[in-house]
Amino acid sequence: MGQVVAAAGYLGERGARPPAIGVVLGSGLGSFVERLSEPQVFPYSQIPHMAASSVEGHEGNLHLGRIGSVRVACMQGRVHAYEGHPLARVVFGVRLLAELGCSSVLLTNAAGGIAAGFRPGDLMLITDHLNLMGDNPLVGPAPAGGSRFCDLSVSYDEGLRALAQAAARDRAIELKQGVYAALLGPSYETPAEIRMLRTLGADAVGMSTVPEVIALRERNVRVGALSLITNLAAGLGQAPLDHAEVQAAATLARESFGGLLLRWIELVAEEDGS
Prior knowledge:
The chain is of the alpha/beta class and 274 residues long. It has a single domain (2-138, 150-230, 244-272), classed as Nucleoside phosphorylase domain (Rossmann fold, 3-Layer(aba) Sandwich), CATH 3.40.50. 31% of the residues lie in helices and 25% in strands. It has a five-stranded mixed barrel with strand order 5-8-7-6-9, surrounded by five helices. The longest helix has 19 residues, at 254-272. The protein starts with a helix and ends with a helix. The model has no long low-confidence stretch (mean pLDDT 90).
């Protein structure tokens, strides 16, 4: 954790104010940072020990600012294990959010839809996950003074989920719910793998988020997570799977996604008294 502390110190020396809520913006969803007031922007490449993303649609900046009266930290993009990073590097950003003072972190991602009836542009509140990435960010030495066995019985905070549903009602947005399966990537899944995932109970599939959830729960940070369904998973649609399709779908959904996330943050802040 020494590197995370050093990164937080670097930001503090440059006037960063402690945020109450953290947000991680997934593929093509980075435009949400335009809603922040009083912004401070720190490229990942300038933050000590933090890896920069090499994936299109992940700009690689930490934005600190306000939504109303609450201070928010937004990770504009993330790094992935499929880029060649060990999971300790993948989760460095969310561990930094926890170190900066975020008591709640809202994670977002772009995902392929598996559940019957899912369509590109749908928003899905994650209720649970399947970790099929073949690794865990907690592998290694036990944390000083803590347990190495992190309880994931309620990985996705029930209170934050209720507030997300309230935000969707306020914005008249249909919010689906489901289980997110995380695979390593970067290749997309085969039709047979999608049939397997459906049998296991997955409603959507992607290549991120789950390691971040585990790392945050180790720090006792409340976690909420939202998937934008950008495409139908392999074997469920007619077109070949393509990352450009993911980004295009994210662009089309930016208003509904942004409106829901904004209201979610406002409700979390009201509940916390931030």
